[in-house]
Each structure stands twice: as C-alpha cells, then as structure tokens.
Amino acid sequence: MKESISLSQSDSQQHKIARPSLPWTVRLPVSIVSTLIDNVCRPNGTSNRRLINFLDYQTPPKPANSVSSTDISLDATRDLWFRLYSPSINQLLPVLIFFHGGGFSFLSPASLPYAMLCRKFAFNLPAIVISVNYRLAPEHRYPSQYQDGFDVLKFLDENSATVLPKNADLSRCFFAGDSAGANLAHHVAVGACRTELRTMKVIGLISIQPFFGGEERTEAEFQLGGPSLLVSVPRTDWCWKAFLPEGSNRDHGAANVSGPNAEDISGLDFPKTMVVVGGFDPLKDWQRRYYTWLRKSGIEASLVEHPNMIHGFYVFPHLAEASLLVLQIKDFIAKCTSKVPNSKPGTFAAPIQVSP
C-alpha cells in the first residue's frame, strides 16, 4: 500500500489539509483499522486474505433486541448468501436489501460492524433487512459483485413467499448500501429497472457515502485524502485497482458513474434516492456529483449532509449523528411509502426510540 499512488508534495502544499474533531473512541479504532488495511493490501493489487479473515470478527445469526436473524444460502460454490433480520412486530414492514461496504475487498454481513448496523436498522426503522454477502476483490473482479447482488434480488423476487416473513410488504422494497455497497446498490438498481420483477416493487435507494471515483483528483481528495482518515487516496486507488477489469482506469462506468462512460438512466423508472454525504469524507465531491447527475437524469433525489462526519461514521453507535441517520432513513422510507398507491397509513409501527 505504501507504494500506491498518493498525492504529490506540491499538491499537498497547494491545498490546506483539513482534520475532523473526533472523540478518541472513534480516532483509535479508525487508526487501528487504517493501519491494518495498509498492511494487508499489497502494492501489486493482491491482498493477504488469510490475515484479513483472521482480523475480521464474525458474528453468528441469533435473536437479540427483539430481532431474529438467520443465514440463507443461494450458491455455496461462490459463497453467495444473505442474512435475514426480522423484528418481532406484527405489522406489514418494508423490505430493505442492504449491501455492505469495504472497498469491494473486505468484510461481510457477519462482520461485527454490519451485524450491529443491520440489526439496528431492523429494530428502529423498523424493516425486514436482507444483508447480502457477495464475492470479494481482488480474487473476484468486476462484475462479480454486481452479478451476486442481482442474483440475490432475483432469488428474493422468485421465492419471496417461502423465504421472507409473512409481514414483509413487497410493495415497499428498498435498496441500501454504504460505501462500496452503495455503489453496488446503484448498479443493482439499474439492473432491476431493466428487468421485470414479479413480486417486488423497489421504490427507494438509500445511498450512504457511496464509493465512486474517477481519474480526476477532486478538491476533497486533496484536502482529506491523507492517511489519518479511514478512507485515503492510496487506499481508494488500491481498491479500484483490485476491483476494476485489468487494463481499466477509474473512469470505468463502474467507478465514475456520472463520467465519460456513464450509463444513460434518464429513461428508467429509477427509484427515489437518498444520498448521504459526510463533510470529512474524501469521496464527498464524487457523491455530490452523483446526486447532481441523478437530478439531471430526471431522478427524484435528496441530499443529506453530515458536515462534521468522516467516512463510515454510522458504524460508531455512540456518535449522535449515527442515530440521527437512522431517523433520516426512517423519514425517507415514510415519504416514499406515502406515494405508493393503496398504501395504508397504519402499516408502520408506532415511533420507536432509536437504540444504541
């Protein structure tokens, strides 16, 4: 990782480097994780998968906080499975299909941060949450991750009656993801728009600090792309190198969705989209471009900004902004639902206090 592309000295002199004010309970784990990432990612685009797996604490499915969970396998040959979270609420609930982050190369639905986050979503939104496991780079490059995500969607659409709880409201389905998972959610949403789903109606996309990029270096990458934050320019460059097809650059349509190789989505019935941006995220300029591109493409989109937050702030439950984000997502789901024909106002449970 130390030999990866980085900002030049002249660049760093021309741009003032900003630093967020974070409690030590955030700074310490961010520093540890950043160091670990730098040590498992090799300059040639390969990774130390054995060490990654050793350091990634995995949680089993279990009932907790009035939410049950179970793992459902689709294809063991490619480790394709998802974790289903079902809150103990006897009312129709929206369905949230979630794709985890990790630069396309790390983590899974069983990783502790995502197990906690998805359980929190299930309990507080409330919603039936489906957390998707997909193949990882660099062992599996583009488009493996997109194929896995879309195959889970097709499986759910064809088997919803037997797989999902009876209180799953298939007329209120949402895609959601963070970082690389938000990138994946976007591309799966595009694929869903080009496919006739039989039972599921996707009405919203929750894009939490999506991982997009390009050959250009943005102002935020200059200001915030140093090694002290979880996301840095050398780390994102490594992730793109590990994920994109051999010979491609960062203007590939998978990375730069609004760039020179952008796919035209203006004629699609693309779901209403909520884009979440953090003020101390080096990717924020790409995320705002994504939002602007959606609006120019005729898509109904909203921008939610957390000015003082870093990339991945939502996995730190003691941060007030993490709980606020849950309420903002709940509000977005309610607004999308209000526009669904024949939706019943009593569908949602009474307001629930956000749990830590």
Automatic annotation (TrEMBL):
Superkingdom of origin: Eukaryota
Molecular function terms, GO-annotated: carboxylic ester hydrolase activity
GO annotation, biological process: pollen tube growth
Domain Alpha/beta hydrolase fold-3, residue spans: 96-314
Pfam families: Abhydrolase_3 (PF07859)
UniProt record similarity statement: Belongs to the 'GDXG' lipolytic enzyme family.
Protein name (record): Carboxyesterase 18, putative
Species this protein is from: Theobroma cacao (Cacao)
